[in-house]
């Protein structure tokens, strides 16, 4: 029983038939109350399914959820990730105010500063040419090897901010499917290549397998000793890196109070700091910090992360909508949906409370998406006409210096029109009129018009980024982190562990053993047949 969420569901039930478009007539202040501008982001949730009462009820849910106290606990470094016995302090990585850091105990200040300085020195050395490959050649390419939180954030940020002609290129490798590494190494000169293994635990099968294969590639071309200066590692378990032949002065650490999917602010982004420059990294942190301050101080009904979280809970819990589509109309943010899939679904895709009780409600929707306008020519057909309601998150950039004014206007016209189209839909009357305008006779109109109908009344949120800069990108990603945190608190779960991923890993290592075993372990006939097939 979760009384605050029950109240929300009751309100949603009452408002179930409400038309979004009518709410603007019923409530002249709707747009101003449900939109705000912060850290270079304009956020509009007025096309969500709320009535005035259900919006107010949704905000009350957060006021009654203990979110303020939980936020304080996080910011002051208390052990809120109870099952792993850890604090959650990724926000400290983007807080350059030493006074604040000291509040959390002395060692954090030193840790954060030491890690930043080490990254900066190494990156500046490579960018200036003071640090080179074994043959004295400058590094031209970084092969960033990592998966999950050690890949999705850095890959998203690199694609978002990389210059058109980068001084140093970054190629990302995550999957243990050897094709990804093969494609990443293709055409590279080992003498100009730096391989960085990125893993919080330094135990992840895919990352270690890819790193060993990449090291072999280096050693084959350069020899064991020379290869050393072409390898580096990032980990919260630096003690594990030595076994992989990585020199101690090429290991960059971070602490276990940084969760994997919240780690892009840490040394996990070393590849970016080298390729884009320390200054870009600092600006990314500054943008995220501005959103942190907003989240910390803004009242909940004017708090961007809370507004996005409230829309999601209203859709997921209030109206039982099991999915959410994230559509960045920004080619440089084409990996945003993938990043949010891990951030939100690995954080809040849970079924029990931190004390082990099964939760009384659903939790996280299925998050999916692709870049706009591409998605319009792929799955929008279903989103527009299906009876299923999939709430949308539309993200766009207002000013893009890389695009002509004409193309930018075309792009923005699409994202704005889609929000409207999902809300207003297309009625049978409109469809019939269209058919008649096309010269269809009554029989053909009766056949075709119903097929053109779009039910509409489908909600969307728009996040409009003034210009895609390191600051606004930092703010955008911090926005989603705090949205996810706020939802987790209301749902009554621990957003910072991920016990559910272990089963697949355990079974994978058992199957791997079975491939080599004389007599494989007991499995169901389908699994046994597959193992036998691979064993040949
Ligand atoms: O950085 P690591 O320790 O290699 O882990 C990679 C990813 O694997 C996970 O543990 C899930 O399997 C994620 O939480 C994490 O981001």
TrEMBL record:
GO terms for molecular function: carbohydrate derivative binding; glucose-6-phosphate isomerase activity; monosaccharide binding. CDD domains: SIS_PGI_1, SIS_PGI_2. It is an enzyme of class 5 (isomerase). The keyword DNA repair does not apply. The active site is at residues 346, 377, 505. It comes from the Bacteria. It catalyses: alpha-D-glucose 6-phosphate = beta-D-fructose 6-phosphate. It comes from Asticcacaulis biprosthecium C19. Catalyzes the reversible isomerization of glucose-6-phosphate to fructose-6-phosphate. Belongs to the GPI family. SUPFAM superfamilies: SIS domain (SSF53697). It is found in: Cytoplasm. One of its GO terms (biological process) is glucose 6-phosphate metabolic process. GO terms for cellular component: cytosol. The lineage of its organism: Bacteria, Pseudomonadati, Pseudomonadota, Alphaproteobacteria, Caulobacterales. Keywords: Cytoplasm, Gluconeogenesis, Glycolysis, Isomerase. PANTHER family: GLUCOSE-6-PHOSPHATE ISOMERASE (PTHR11469:SF1). The keyword Ribonucleoprotein does not apply. Pathway: Carbohydrate biosynthesis; gluconeogenesis; Carbohydrate degradation; glycolysis; D-glyceraldehyde 3-phosphate and glycerone phosphate from D-glucose: step 2/4. This is Glucose-6-phosphate isomerase. Its EC number is 5.3.1.9.
